[in-house]
Amino acid sequence: MIQSKALFLDRDGVINIDDGYVYKIDEFKFISGIFDFALKFRKAGYKIFVITNQSGIARGYYTVEDFRKVTSFMEKEFLKRGVTISKTYFCPCLPPEECLCRKPNPYMLLQARDEFQIDLENSIFVGDKSSDIEAGNRAGVKSFLFKNSSDFEFILDNSLL
Ligand SMILES: [Mg+2]
User: Fold this and answer.
1) This prediction's pTM
2) 2 alpha carbon – ligand 1 mean position (Å)
3) C or N terminus of the chain, fewer CB within 10 Å?
4) Ligand 1 centroid distance, CA of 82 (Å)
5) What distance in angstroms lies between residue 51's CA and the mean position of ligand 1's atoms?
6) What is the tens place of the pLDDT at every residue in 71-125?
7) Is residue 79 part of a domain?
8) In whole angstroms, what separates CA 34 from the centre of its chain?
9) Is 66 part of any domain?
10) Mean pLDDT of the residues in the chain
């Protein structure tokens, strides 16, 4: 079986500025450098996935349909810059539900592995919370904690593209 490497991106705080429960297109502000960063991985043959907890859905702040609209906008903005997002995985649950999908569970990463034949050992996860790093570690993916745009360069330098 031919496997692909993947770059897994958390959404809020990595792709867009995390203002808390962002779901409107006009409030979705891309983080500086994210497009070039993702493009470098695409050019190196990585598939790109978004892995995001969206408890705002269970909280009733926005609907799955709202989330899908903003996701479609986000994916198109990447595509305009030459970056295909293979799939955006999301967990709509509330933290106390202890669902299977919510990070720090590795479930969404394992789903991507199964659906897209991903070689997790040679894949990378970038997230801004410890729950991201834990999910990545539990999936056996090399994980980087992201704080700001200057980290993109560090991650690229340490990813052996
Ligand atoms: Mg985040």
Assistant:
1) 0.97
2) 31
3) N
4) 23
5) 9
6) 999 999 999 999 999 999 999 999 877 799 999 999 999 999 999 999 999 999 9
7) yes
8) 11
9) yes
10) 96
Output the CA 45–ligand 1 centroid distance in Å: 25
Distance from residue 99's CA to the centre of ligand 1 (Å): 18
**pLDDT for 30-83, tens place per residue?**
999 999 999 999 999 999 999 999 999 999 999 999 999 999 999 999 999 999
Q: Could you give the 3-state DSSP secondary structure of residue 92?
A: coil
Closest CA to 12 of 88, 80, 117: 88
Which listed residue (12, 114, 128, 157) is catalytic? 12
Number of domains making up the chain: 1
H or E segment and range at residue 153 = helix 150-157
Active site (annotated) includes residue 26: no
Could you tell me which residues come within 8 angstroms of residue 40 by beta carbon, excluding any fewer than 6 positions away? 156, 161
Tokens in use for 77?
Answer: 């903005």
b/e map 56-95, b = 16+ CB within 10 Å: bbbeeebeeebbeebbeebbebbeeeebebbbbbbbbbee
Q: Tell me, in angstroms, the distance from the centre of ligand 1 to residue 28's CA.
A: 14
CATH label of the domain that carries residue 22: 3.40.50.1000
Show the domain range for 101.
13-85+95-122+131-157
